[in-house]
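Quick one:
INPUT:
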């Protein structure tokens, strides 16, 4: 059942659902070829990838999910919403689809969820593409005050400062005042969160950042398992949330990593520059395939 607010011209995909313990998880699976799996951040949903999917699904199989609590997935009231739980759900979807040779695209909060999967199954993940994601290994670098158990990095601080704001307002602020994204599209984000007049404090994403630093640190310690996966980082420099020093950390994290800067773009690169992003992603996949073929011929 598609909700009546959904703009099906913008988002013309067939909805699929996977029954999980937490509820129904919505995802789309378009095109065929090498699988590209896209994980959204907060507080967005697979809609953010719609233009990339339209372009990339011509040659690739594109899978984009809505985390539980977001988009067209169920929004159970009493479920945990901790990133660990999201990561377990994502793992179930991957298990269900039985994908190999995945190119993983992660944005924002989607990074730890995607990278947790890669750490558990490095043999399935061929490439990683990151769009403005924050690093979460904070415990060793910054000492927060008592409040820190609620705040994980810039996203946590931002959400925490907005707990009394309505979700509609939160979306506007995330896109930024001078956003080139039309109201009509911004509404697709607001409505997907439930009631636009509801307070942010009731949102899955505001609750889920509590007390997760232990999990992030466990992931960070396991990073050796994925440091050799070829990685493309696309970065919108006007991002108010994720500052450029996070990018520096990622550069040091991956051994083979290419970085492209978008000077005039903010946090939602794939909204503002879908054509460029799609082009870079498909070239990256092509190049890595070539390298792999070469390497195999030499053996």
């Amino acid at each position: 059942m598609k909700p009546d607010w959904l703009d099906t011209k913008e988002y013309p995909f067939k909805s699929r659902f996977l029954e999980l313990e937490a509820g129904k998880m919505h995802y789309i699976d378009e095109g065929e070829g090498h699988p590209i799996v896209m994980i959204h951040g907060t507080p967005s949903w697979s809609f953010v990838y719609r233009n990339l999917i339209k372009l990339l699904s011509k040659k690739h199989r594109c899978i984009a999910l809505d985390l539980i609590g977001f988009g067209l997935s169920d929004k159970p009231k009493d479920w945990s919403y901790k990133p660990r739980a999201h990561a377990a759900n994502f793992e179930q979807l991957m298990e269900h689809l039985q994908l190999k040779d995945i190119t993983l695209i992660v944005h924002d909060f989607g990074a730890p969820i995607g990278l947790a999967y890669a750490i558990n199954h490095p043999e399935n993940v061929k490439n990683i593409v990151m769009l403005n994601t924050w690093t979460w290994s904070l415990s060793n670098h910054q000492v927060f005050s008592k409040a820190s158990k609620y705040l994980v990095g810039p996203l946590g601080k931002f959400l925490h400062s907005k707990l009394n704001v309505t979700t509609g307002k939160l979306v506007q602020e995330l896109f930024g005042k001078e956003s080139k994204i039309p109201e009509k599209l911004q509404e697709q984000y607001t409505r997907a969160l439930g009631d636009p007049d509801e307070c942010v404090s009731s949102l899955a994403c505001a609750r889920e950042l509590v007390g997760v630093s232990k999990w992030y640190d466990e992931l960070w310690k396991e990073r050796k398992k994925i440091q050799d996966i070829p990685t493309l980082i696309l970065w919108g420099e006007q991002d108010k949330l994720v500052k450029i020093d996070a990018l520096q950390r990622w550069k040091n994290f991956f051994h083979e990593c290419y970085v492209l800067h978008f000077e005039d773009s903010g946090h939602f690169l794939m909204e503002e520059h879908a054509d460029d992003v799609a082009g870079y992603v498909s070239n990256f996949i092509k190049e890595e395939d070539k390298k792999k073929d070469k390497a195999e011929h030499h053996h």
